[in-house]
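So, is this right?
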Amino acid sequence: MRVLIVLTYYRPHVSGLTIYAERLAQQLTERGHHVTVLCSRHDRSLPSRELVDGVRIVRVPVLARISKGVVMPMPLWALWHVWRHDAVSVHVPQFDGGAVALIGRLARRRTVVTYHCDLRLPEGLINRLADAATYLMNLVAAGFAHEVVAYTEDYADHSSLLKRFRGKVRVCPPPVVMDEPDPAAVEQLRAAWGASEGPVIGMAARLATEKGVEFLVQAMPIVLERFPDARVVFAGAHADVVGEAHYRAKLAPSIQRLGGRWRFVGELGPDEMAAFFGALDVLVVSSVNSTESFGLVQVEAMLCGTPVVATDLPGVRQPVAMTGMGVVVPPADAAALAAGLVEVVAEPDRYVVPRSRIQARFDVSATMACYEDMLATRPDGGHGADATAEVRHGTE
């Protein structure tokens, strides 16, 4: 089966959405499908075309930028590429998602939209207009899709967009792939962080408004009263996050006052994340709105033996609820976040869950079976498990 995956940002840009799409592309390729990723050339230094781990990447030139979004002739490029593929996987939010889904339906290609989250850009009139326009295009994309993928029933029941299309929403577990951490690498990291004694609190995210980083900053003085050697290690883009310069500037003085108790380690490669998660005592997901719909990093941390403190938002609360490996606290509440951190750090044995149980709950093979079933198309125009079997056995 020839699958076209369409989204705005792809590697080397790092976000939960890009990691999800990358894993989907890689897993489909490993299962014998031919995969093309159609995305923006958000960085002019990137090649317009390249082959990475068997996945063909085609990057569309960017004509202009609006906040975190880009303007590009994606529909024109999609007209050509959709016809050359058997199925289309559209990942939203993206402004071009509606046009691509329409092209997929007109070309009679199986079209599946994965709805990753609502879009909530930082404050400002231009951002509010961009939010509204993208929401409209997401509505169009979901309307033309054969099926719409959601991470959890919880998020599907609370998202204003997904509730409109509940009849075609299909919940698939997100693709989670994480190696076991190497104990030697873990100890080396903790030593490098100067964390041989106190607990290490981790974040793995972009320094962005929706992540609620300020509430962890505000919680730290409370945590330090109980654990004076505690420290935060923040992995992810933090210096030049598009559209977040004001947010970073606002947080900078408070972070500086924490001194050595706060460390930025930048973006880590996929091969570095297992050691990072394994070196933590607890991971924080302090998101404050529906731009976060799940938080893949929660499951990745759990697979490395690290519990989580997450906010009580639809979808975001589900990994802890499904595994018991952590606590859930109210969003935008520094005191509650601090209490949750103290609780987990003080009694870590309460939140230890065997890796095998986490793997069973988030089995990537179940994710791929779900996608193959949705994307596969029989010659008679139907789809389903039989079509998937035919493709997998080379009868496409």
Confidence is low (pLDDT under 50) at residues 384-396.
